[in-house]
From TrEMBL:
Record-given protein name: Replication initiation control protein YabA
Localization per record: Cytoplasm, Nucleoid
Top-rank lineage group of the source organism: Bacteria
Chain sites annotated for binding Zn(2+): H90, C92, C105, C108
Lineage of producing organism: Bacteria, Bacillati, Bacillota, Bacilli, Bacillales
InterPro entries named in the record: YabA
Function: Involved in control of chromosome replication initiation. Inhibits the cooperative binding of DnaA to the oriC region, thus negatively regulating initiation of chromosome replication. Inhibits the ability of DnaA-ATP to form a helix on DNA; does not disassemble preformed DnaA-DNA helices. Decreases the residence time of DnaA on the chromosome at its binding sites (oriC, replication forks and promoter-binding sites). Tethers DnaA to the replication machinery via the DNA polymerase beta sliding clamp subunit (dnaN).
Subunit description: Homotetramer. Interacts with both DnaA and DnaN, acting as a bridge between these two proteins.
Cofactor section: Zn(2+)
Keywords, alphabetical: Cytoplasm, DNA replication, DNA replication inhibitor, Metal-binding, Zinc
The keyword Metal-binding is annotated on this UniProt entry: yes
Ranges where the record places region Disordered: 46-67
Cofactor binding description: Binds 1 zinc ion per subunit.
Family recorded in the similarity comment: Belongs to the YabA family.
Length: 116
């Protein structure tokens, strides 16, 4: 190998190292973006989880309240509710007390069946 060839080879390596260095910088900035996004998603996930838990707690509360209501309704209460429904009002906990506008409401019917 003569001096010229050695010089060319060293030049080649220098060029490759330069390219590798550039790629490394590229990857580094992509990694930075990914870490940033990961951080953002973690925070969002945490936030959503909190909200989900809060909503779930509310649902459980609502459910046990409805169950309690159902248990507490004696025959007479049921008749009153059935009459209210016949008169065209919602008796379900979704729209309770609002006019039905002559349409049957599934929630109300479910509620009536459950209460019987
Ligand atoms: Zn209803």
């Amino acid at each position: 190998m003569n001096k010229r060839q050695i010089f060319d080879q060293v030049s080649d390596m220098e060029k490759q190292i330069g390219e590798l260095y550039e790629q490394l910088g590229d990857l580094k900035s992509k990694l930075g973006d990914l870490l940033e996004e990961n951080n953002r998603l973690s925070m969002e996930n945490h936030h959503l989880r909190n909200r989900f838990d809060a909503t779930e707690d509310e649902d459980n509360l609502e459910e046990s309240r409805t169950e309690k209501q159902l248990k507490e309704i004696p025959g007479e209460g049921y008749d009153n509710l059935a009459r209210l429904y016949e008169e065209g009002f919602h008796i379900c906990n979704v729209h309770f007390g609002s006019p039905r506008q002559d349409e049957d409401c599934l929630f109300c019917l479910l509620f009536l069946n459950k209460t019987k």
